[in-house]
């Protein structure tokens, strides 16, 4: 039930088919050419540009002070700092541009610091399980040079239009790319992610930038991505780095080809390997299929790439839809969908397979549902057929079917179930490379408290703190001001105030 699905495997296989054959030899040079010789690679260092410095290299997200410049062309050699992985190469064709001066100051302090009483230094700690500890939106929708530390329980708050949903959508899109999805699957409406007031370049191209930091056994690893949204959706630059050293860098060199030129650290005689990768897939997710791990450099790249992929894949976007949860459902494998439409079938499974979790959910229902609640039960026709869930009201009272519950009660039950369970009960494909005990599930919930009253929101926060405190589950959610105000007084909750 936790193995990679056929659909995910198919997406990954398709991505590999688009790329060249395996090129793991330390002596491999440019694709189709002779081995290239480069001097030894010292640690890469580069100071961040000043606010009015030249734009960041094409394909590599800018430093905070220069992020307002967006995506702008530069020579391919500028993909990495001097004397790093890639030797001088042909100039990079112009990429999507967001001209400098069209946006305001790039740094928004209120967006860069979590509020509340959550641990401010949490992203700096090394984690035993791969987890995303920072989300960077360099140029994404309303966000510019925004850096969001993510703790075990992070809530985004702010007025309508402040960018709460954009932050959740960026995380979800990266999670999809990490699972092998194509770019058009991860960004259903990419033009809506282009920064406000972005002006196209001479080739009428525009795009956006985003990235994450993933901490884990290998230490903090940064992934940064530059995406062209117009006129054609494609990845024009990707960078995987650790401790200032570039492990993977890609750049779009020929707009006529559906590929980017990639270079990754290998060590050995040449120190790097170069090969084309598809421009609609995350290169980091393809590295474990292309790197043999025969040198220390290759093993470093593999450890970093696998840590990022495991953390991104361990995400479950959840948006319970009460209108889809009321009807009885046919019995299935009992894995909860993202819209929670099959809640009754999942309750059937938890009741029979996990009495402890089912009892905890029933206990939560006593707080979140109106009236007397003795337990949660399911009903199905004797000869088989659709399954309906009910609230047990006691021996002298008729049970209440979920179809008769309010929208807030249904959303509460679904979210409580998600927080009390794990990947084995959710319709997701966690990484099969690691045992489930060494992975942390991140629940992504936009409008987390939509339709909930104060009592229900408080109970969900209690359950979230209980589950997140154990380290196996993390929560990143967007909430209203009422829930945010209550959460600011709770130890262990980090509230990110947008629009302040």
Descriptive report:
This protein is of the alpha+beta class and 500 residues long. It is built from twelve helices and 17 strands. An eight-stranded antiparallel sheet has the order 3-2-5-6-7-8-9-10. A six-stranded mixed sheet has the order 1-17-4-16-15-11, sandwiched between helices. It starts with 5 loop residues before the first helix and ends with a strand. The model is unreliable at 1-124 (pLDDT under 50).
Task: Supply Rg.
Answer: 24 Å
Largest sheet: 8 strands, antiparallel
User: Can you list the strand order of the major beta sheet?
Assistant: 3-2-5-6-7-8-9-10
Strand content: 15-25%
Q: Please tally the β strands and state the result.
A: 17
Provide the residue-averaged pLDDT. Answer: 78
Distance between the termini: 44 Å
Category by helix and strand content: alpha+beta
- Low-pLDDT runs of 5+ residues are 1-124
What order do the helices and strands follow?
A: HHEEEEHHEEEEEEHHEHHHEEEHEHEHE
DSSP helix fraction? 25-40%
Overall morphology: globular
Per DSSP, the total helix count is: 12
Compose a concise summary of this entry.
The chain is α+β, with helices and mostly antiparallel strands and 500 residues long. It has helices at residues 6-18, 109-112, 164-178, 183-186, 283-290, 296-313, 322-325, 343-353, 355-368, 407-420, 454-468, 481-487; strands at residues 114-116, 131-140, 143-149, 153-157, 206-215, 221-230, 234-242, 245-251, 259-267, 271-278, 315-317, 375-379, 388-392, 400-401, 441-445, 473-478, 494-497.
């Amino acid at each position: 039930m936790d193995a990679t699905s056929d659909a995910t495997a198919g997406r990954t296989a398709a991505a590999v088919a688009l790329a060249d054959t395996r090129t793991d030899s330390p002596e491999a040079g440019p694709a189709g050419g002779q081995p290239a010789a480069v001097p030894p690679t010292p640690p890469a260092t580069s100071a961040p540009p000043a606010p009015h410095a030249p734009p960041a290299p094409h394909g590599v997200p800018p430093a905070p002070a220069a992020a307002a410049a967006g995506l702008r062309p530069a020579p391919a050699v500028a993909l990495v700092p001097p004397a790093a992985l890639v030797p001088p190469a042909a100039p990079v064709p112009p990429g999507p541009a967001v001209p400098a001066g069209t946006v305001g100051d790039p740094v928004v302090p209120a967006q860069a610091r979590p509020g509340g009483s959550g641990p401010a230094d949490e992203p700096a700690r090394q984690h035993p399980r791969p987890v995303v500890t920072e989300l960077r939106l360099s140029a994404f929708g309303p966000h510019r040079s925004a850096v969001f530390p993510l703790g075990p329980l992070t809530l985004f708050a702010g007025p309508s239009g402040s960018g709460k949903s954009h932050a959740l959508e960026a995380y979800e899109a990266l999670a999809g790319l990490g699972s092998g999805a194509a770019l058009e699957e991860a960004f259903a409406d990419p033009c809506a992610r282009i920064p406000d007031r972005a002006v196209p370049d001479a080739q009428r191209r525009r795009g956006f930038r985003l990235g994450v930091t993933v901490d884990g056994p290998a230490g903090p690893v940064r992934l940064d991505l530059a995406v062209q949204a117009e006129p054609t959706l494609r990845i024009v630059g990707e960078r995987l780095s650790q401790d200032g050293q570039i492990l993977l860098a890609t750049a779009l060199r020929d707009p006529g080809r559906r590929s980017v030129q990639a270079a990754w650290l290998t060590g050995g005689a040449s120190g790097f390997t170069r090969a084309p990768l598809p421009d609609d897939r995350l290169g980091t997710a393809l590295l474990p299929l292309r790197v043999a791990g025969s040198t220390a450099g290759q093993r470093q790249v593999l450890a970093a790439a696998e840590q990022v992929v495991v953390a991104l894949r361990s995400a479950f976007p959840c948006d319970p839809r009460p209108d889809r949860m009321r009807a009885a459902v046919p019995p299935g494998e009992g894995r909860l969908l993202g819209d929670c439409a099959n809640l009754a079938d999942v309750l059937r499974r938890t009741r029979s397979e996990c009495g402890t979790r089912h009892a905890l959910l029933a206990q939560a229902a006593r707080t979140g549902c109106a009236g007397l609640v003795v337990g949660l039960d399911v009903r199905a026709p004797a000869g088989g057929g659709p399954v309906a869930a009910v609230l047990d009201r006691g021996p002298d009272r008729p049970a209440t079917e979920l179809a008769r519950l309010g929208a807030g009660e249904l959303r509460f039950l679904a979210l409580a179930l998600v927080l009390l369970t794990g990947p084995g009960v959710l319709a997701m494909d966690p990484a099969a490379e690691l045992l489930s005990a060494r992975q942390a599930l991140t629940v992504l919930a936009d409008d987390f408290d939509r339709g909930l009253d104060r009592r229900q929101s408080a109970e969900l926060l209690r359950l979230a703190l209980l589950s997140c405190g154990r380290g196996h589950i993390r929560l990143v959610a967007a909430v209203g001001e009422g829930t945010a105000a209550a959460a600011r007084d709770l130890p262990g909750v980090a509230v990110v105030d947008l629009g302040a």
